[in-house]
Amino acid sequence: MNLPTNRREWISAGALGFLSGGVMSGISNGNEQQERPRNFGTAKSCVVVFLFGGQGQQDTYDLKPNAPAEIRGEFTPISTNVIGTQICEHLPHLSKLMDKVTIVRSMSHTDFEHGSASYTALTGHPHPLPGTNTPARREDFPTYGAAVAHLKPTQGPVPSATVLGPVMHQGNRPPMAGQNAGFLGHAFEPFRVDRDPNDTDFSVAELALPAEVNGARFDQRYDLLNRLEPRFRAVDRLGEIRGMTDLKQRAFGLLGSGKSRQAFDLGNETEQLREHYGRHKFGQTMLLARRLVEAEVPLITVNWARSNREEWDTHSKNYPTMKDRLLPPFDQGISAFIADLDARGMLDSTLVIALGEFGRTPKINKDAGRDHWPDVYSLLVAGGGVKRGVVVGESDQHAAFPKTDPIAPWDLAATMYHLLGIGPETHVFDRAGRPFSLSPGRVATDLLS
């Protein structure tokens, strides 16, 4: 294969897609000819909003007003624009958009710990050490963005996967598993932007050339690295240099691309629209996510916070925390995002998933909070081939266990890949050449429009 030799050729070739398309030898689609459920490949992009800590189902989408006080809590349900569907009173913007989204009230798994449950939520695979906060490891299953970058990369000069927000940690421990490319290697790490888009001086420095490096010097550096690579590969027994070479090619493609820089430039948005999304970190991050959808980035992950502490992990002071600090920006940002996509004709081709790693306990604890609860929880999905204006699944009278239609995280992952046009049964290979199914779950056909 003859690689482009300078910056300009990389741009015209679609550097990232060119690169990723050349390293897909570790893919096996297995039963490609099998009949698939409807809406395969409907979504061009997917935005995963990860609410680290665990959003309480009974305080958002699945209130139980007839339950005892220690279960129903302080919030009351309000009607939405879909007759018969109610959600929390502190989600007024979402209540007016319920005809555009679907609520799942029967998500369920068995892992009570943040680290391993987050791994499951972000990879679609149970962690091999459930109930732990094992840090990220090289043998981890790849996060969604890495898997999509490997299997269905963009053909344009933009990232195939982007993470907006910080690297997540459980407390003061090392970075959690489930956030990186794992056994796929460095070449497929999502492009990360961890600065606050609401800052007045927000920019993505990684996409800017140093002042002293002009176009000619940029091309010279690229040419020098290309000439050195054959010598590096001769001593690369473990394949590490090959991975770094791929990463280098991706970096040069990004630096040479005006489209990437424009996608991350919020200065092109009107002040009125920025206010509509909310002049806070989450709102402006969702606006940035919409720009990346327009730029045709296939997988965008939005991380709410670095740590679970004092965020959605509301073991104490649940109600003032939710009412005053968490629900208002979430409601404004996610609602503006969905409405904006729909107004631009992009919601039907963009899958939106807003979820945490689990829910919260039915019973309020002694500290006026709710603890970890994976047995049943809720999430919001929209666009990309899923139904609009419905509720899928039902919990019991205390929002403690599924009453109907339980959906596991790996089922949600299988559905996401299906809608993105990637067969969930597709095999990816680890460093030892062992095959793994992309998802062990089933496509949740109840979600499909």
Any key phrases for this structure?
8-stranded mixed sheet, 3-stranded antiparallel sheet, alpha/beta, Alkaline Phosphatase, subunit A, 449 residues, disordered N terminus
What would your notes on this structure say?
- The strands form five sheets. This protein has an eight-stranded mixed β-sheet with strand order 7-6-8-2-9-12-5-13, with helices on both faces. Strands 1-16-17 form a three-stranded antiparallel β-sheet, with no helix packed on it.
- The chain has 13 helices and 17 strands.
- α2 runs antiparallel to α8.
- It is α/β, with parallel strands linked by helices.
- It is globular, with a radius of gyration of 22 Å.
- The protein is 31% helix and 14% strand.
- It has one domain (7-444): Alkaline Phosphatase, subunit A (3-Layer(aba) Sandwich).
Secondary structure: elements and pairs:
Layout: H1 7-13, H2 15-21, E1 27-28, E2 45-50, H3 69-72, E3 77-79, E4 86-88, H4 92-95, E5 101-107, H5 114-123, H6 144-151, E6 161-164, E7 191-193, H7 215-234, H8 240-255, H9 258-263, H10 271-277, H11 281-294, E8 299-303, H12 318-343, E9 350-355, E10 359-360, E11 372-373, E12 377-382, E13 390-392, E14 394-395, E15 402-404, H13 409-419, E16 427-429, E17 435-437
Parallel strand pairs: 2-8, 2-9, 5-13, 6-7, 6-8
Antiparallel strand pairs: 1-16, 3-4, 5-12, 9-12, 10-11, 14-15, 16-17
